Amino acid sequence: MTWLSPSFPVGAFSYSSGIEWAVEVGDITDAASLRQWLTSMLVDGAGICDSIFLTHTHRAAAANDDATLREIAELASAFAPSRERHLETTAQGRAFIEIARAAWHHAALDRLIAACEGNFVYPVAVGLVSAAHRIPLAPTLHAFFHAVVSNWISAGSRLVPLGQTDSQRVLAQLEGDVAATAKRALSASLDDLGSATFRADLASMRHETQYTRLFRS
Q1: Cα 72 to the chain's mean position, in Å?
Q2: What are the CA-CA distances from residue 209 to residues 18, 58, 84 (Å)?
Q3: Which residues contact 40 (CB under 8 A, 6 or more apart)?
């Protein structure tokens, strides 16, 4: 919970995953439209893909399967749909690795980190460190989703803007989708990877040239 709390310094507050552009063009205007947007991202976009990468990273690391771990890390890095999304996930992933390694070092971490050959997207970093410390996969997934979804909502609340109560309502309404997506990830193979959130992907691309920006993505 410490690693995946808002206070853990991976810089998540700097990124909106394209939500800033969606607010700019009117796709997100209130709590209801934010919830709909985030549900799609969670169930059919970055949420499910990242959770599958985390799951398979955790299992490969726990099994000391360096070859599979290397392949997963490379695939996850290549899966980002835009330059800014790639920056977002790799910057957070590297920060997560560096801070966890410095403060909670484990003998297995150095070898696992080396196996990834520098491809540290955020879900891979979380899966790798959690497996090294033998934290079970299921609670790791739930904590990861809580961190990601909470950051999405935080970005939306600042941009729309929304009050604290509406933000918490959105978080509560997404609980069922979080649990269902985590369950899907636990039984998914890498062949199940796929996204159908075209508007969100376009938002992350359009954000690169957005005139005024509060966020880096």
Answers
A1: 15
A2: 12, 36, 11
A3: 197, 199, 200
Q: Residue 213's closest CA among 96, 84, 86?
A: 84
Closest to 62 measured CA to CA, from 160, 131, 135: 131
- Inter-CA distances, 29 with 104, 161, 204, Å: 41, 8, 18
Amino acid at 172: A
Q: How many CB atoms lie within 10 A of CB 42?
A: 23
Helices 46-62, 175-187: inter-axial angle, 10-degree rounding:
50
For the segment 8-46, what is each residue's pLDDT rounded down to a tens digit?
999 999 999 999 999 999 999 999 999 999 999 999 999
Strand segments (E) across 41-195: none
Q: Please state whether the predicted TM-score (pTM) of the whole model is above 0.90.
A: yes
